[in-house]
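Q: I'm writing up a methods section and want to include an example of the input and output format. Could you take the sequence below and give the corresponding predicted structure tokens, formatted cleanly so I can copy it straight into the document?
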Amino acid sequence: MAAGIVYLSYPSGSDKHAPISASDVCKPLSNDTSVATLKQVLPEQSDFSFDEEPEASRLPAEVSDSYSTSCFIRGDQNLLLSVRARMMRAEPPNSWAREIFAGRDDEAGRVSRFEAGTRGVASPIRAAAFIPCAPKGKIPGGSYNISVVVSLKKRGDVSDAQSRDGLIDLVTSFGKHAHKNAGCTLPSRI
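A: Here is the clean output for your methods example:
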């Protein structure tokens, strides 16, 4: 399956702002709640592009350790938001969370937990969920989770709390989609 790009714009110099609609965004974010959240957390732009890397093909009853999918949202040629989901071996949730926020001193003290999977963590510019997927023995190497991370590179005119809540909505929506499409057999807990 090929990746897809949708590009929306108004003529250069226009004071109009490009709309965001469910038919334009990456499939995992095409529900009404996610579209409303994107409109809230992203800055107004004269153009948007949505670049989706769809899941790799797999047999319907197969769970694979190579599962991954992503969505990149650009506005006025700049990356505004990225969402990535990938299968990985389960590890202690604290280790996983430290890895997600490692080297990001700008987020120190602004990271808090939320209920999602085995762990959900969020700040005003990043949210992540570690979602159970496959038990030991289903995929060689142990049990597996899906790591979903939303990174906001540039945000609209919203408070830290509004941004954090919006990113939690996006990571939850993308996580539900990834859990289903990866063929996970464990409950997602999201």
